[in-house]
Amino acid sequence: MTLLTRGLTRRRVLQTGMAGIIGTGVAPMMFTKGAWAQEFCNNPTGDTVTFGLNLPLTGTYAEEGADEQKAYELAIAHLNGEGDGGLLNVLAPSALKGNGILGKKVVYVSSDSQTKSDVARAGATRMIERDGAIMITGGSSSGEAIAVQGLCQEMGVIFMAGLTHSNDTTGKDKRRYGFRHFFNAYQSGIGLAPVLGQSYGNDRRAYHLTADYTWGWTQEESIKAATEALGWETVAAVRTPLGATDYSQYLTPILNSGADVLILNHYGLDMVNSLTQAVQFGMRDRQANGKDFQIVTPLISELMAKGAGESVKGIFGTSNWHWNLQDPGSIAFTKSFGAAYGSPPSQAAHTAYVQALLYADACERAGTFYPPEVIKALEGHEFDGMGNGKTLYRAEDHQCIKSVLVVQGNESPTSEYDVLNVVQEIDRETVAYDPSIFGGDLGPAEPAPMCA
Amino acid sequence: MPTTFMSRNDLLLFLGFTIVVLAMPIWLAPFGAGYPDLLQRFMIYGIFAVGFNILFGLTGYLSFGHAAFFGVGSYTAVWSFKLLTLDAIPAMVFAVIVSALFALVIGFLCLRRSGIYFSILTLAFAQMSYNLAYSVLTPITNGETGLQLTLNDPRVLDAAIGQTFVGQPVPTLFGQQLSGYAGFYFCAGFLILAFFFAQRITGSPFGMMLKSIKSNQTRMQFTGFNTRPYALSAFVISGMYAGLAGALLAVTDPLAGAERMQWTASGEVVLMTILGGVGTLVGPVIGAWIIKYFENILSALNDNILARFWSFLPDGMADFMVTVTSKFVGDGWHLTLGLLFVIIVIFLPGGIMEGVRRIAAAVRRSGTPAAKTQTQPAE
């Protein structure tokens, strides 16, 4: 006691410190030991299986996130045998029984990714580590998708990407544990260019405004390549920060640039803002180089077209899916979604719903949740009835190869949802491409990484 | 007579802190926070806040741009993983060095002013770094997409010793993976070290200089001290702490995004420090834990969970409560944080630590009246 009142010697402190450090080294073993009892990450042992929904509920792509959430809730209800069964009835071939997955009831946890890569990753980690999610799905930004996909590869959890259109997701940043149903920018270019050539001629001068992240970069690259192949000239390509609200500083230089087409590589709220402001600038009433000035939005959805209102009329773009398609799958999905939420589903909702079903189906076919087996079941899987015609989950890059829609803003909408017309359906042979052109490496499936 | 190294109170505080930190996986489990990712964040933001407190709490300079150093630390660490080796140690050494240099430059410029002008200058520099990371520097930072590790990174040192591996590259410590609880204890070790150094700085003659800069800089100058080197050292030290925290975040989760440099991130560390107690050693760490806990737990609640929670009430009541409470959780968690912050600032201007002191004082008064005369630690 006398020692303590006088303070401590340096030696005493060092001794205690060393003991502490050794203790720190030993302690982790005690806590991680139990984790090896299960043979893969979050093996569901109870009577439920948990999906982790990583959705942008705030930020630039919030509206897509909200629609995806509705779709996932619907998909989970259908998988559990509730509701009208939706696309379970039309998926072919299907191993789904409507009693959950492998007899386990599907439940979900969710996280708001705020349209930010950092936050998306933190949310996914939480859902894997704390909530025991067997699969992570969702997201509406390629930045998020690529970040979360890398994490899932590290953790050994399958990632079923939501809306992500960057070439990199299944290109240079592809991962063995990541799968994408949505189409990509390269396919948009292949689909859109011929239509643009027919409508606007082959001697146009294009000006790009591009969202400054992976999706914007690859879409700009793909559209540039496709339009230049037509004979168009690219005047300039200007990067704008994601989530910008005022585009006037980017729009003013276009007027004197000698361009006669504006290509907006924006999505979500960015596109609603930039398109509306471009129209307010009087761009669509202008003449340049003796031609009518045109605006093109390579990737567009019903939600954005609705947000942009009048401005979107007559504008060309591409979509993954549209609720007005007349195949049994699209009709069934639009009917279920409409009955549940009172509005037709967007393409984001569709891809989210389909991804959830495809994962469940793959688990049923594999007969296990063990990720490497589920991956094998998904790779090279050919299916039909989900609204995009015959679809192949390509084994080389985990990209779904299916038909792509060229759409145009509806000149005379009959309802607030009837904002886009399908101009052309490009079949999947045309939009298929060589998976090796983007490089990247999937990495191995086994040994399955073991999350803590 | 042996040299006195630490006073008894300091040592007890340090040991108590160490035990609380190391036992976190146990005592936080009932609160739903006992999972590695959140625990790692508790450690990392604790380090960030302890470092920030050296500048704000001790020296009295309110920096609104500390997230810049945090971000620089992260980017440096990820580049070290990509170019040199997956080992965590070189990454952290480089991160601390680079953020120190960065802090030296920014501190040299900003410390020509004090008070609100200093705050605005640091805010401007941080926001500039953020915007650069997002636009001009995208070849280095990969912009919005974030900087990530890939299979075909060069990793010169790993290649030189012929180390290969399968799967997604992850940071290691001498070949041991740093995910999960191993990552937590790694970060916890650094938090304890960071706390120890902060404690030593506070008690040292150098710390006394910093405190006197805070209480009256002009008088210091009149008595013949040149205060700027001291303030600059404090700024650089606190920048190094931020860089260390940023590097640890990259070690536990090897992706660096520009968002962590945004002004909201800088503001967050100010909130942490004020919430916990400015100028106290433990306060900022507690503030960091509370904010990260709220962010991760409240933001994960959704209407379904609330409906289950309120299900004991009659139907109409339950729906009403779900509607009301749902505004405060999920994406509305900032509202709860804001309310908590307002309450703390109004009723406990010294932060949570003031609350702790008041309770301790009340207990002591009712117990032994004589102990009342005991001196309270400054601030």
Automatic annotation (TrEMBL), chain A:
Domain of life: Bacteria
Domain (Leucine-binding protein): residue spans on this chain: 48-410
Cited Pfam families: Peripla_BP_6
Keywords: Amino-acid transport, Membrane, Signal, Transmembrane, Transmembrane helix, Transport
GO aspect biological process, one term: amino acid transport
Record field: transmembrane: 12-31
Family, similarity comment: Belongs to the leucine-binding protein family.
Annotated protein name in UniProt: Substrate-binding protein
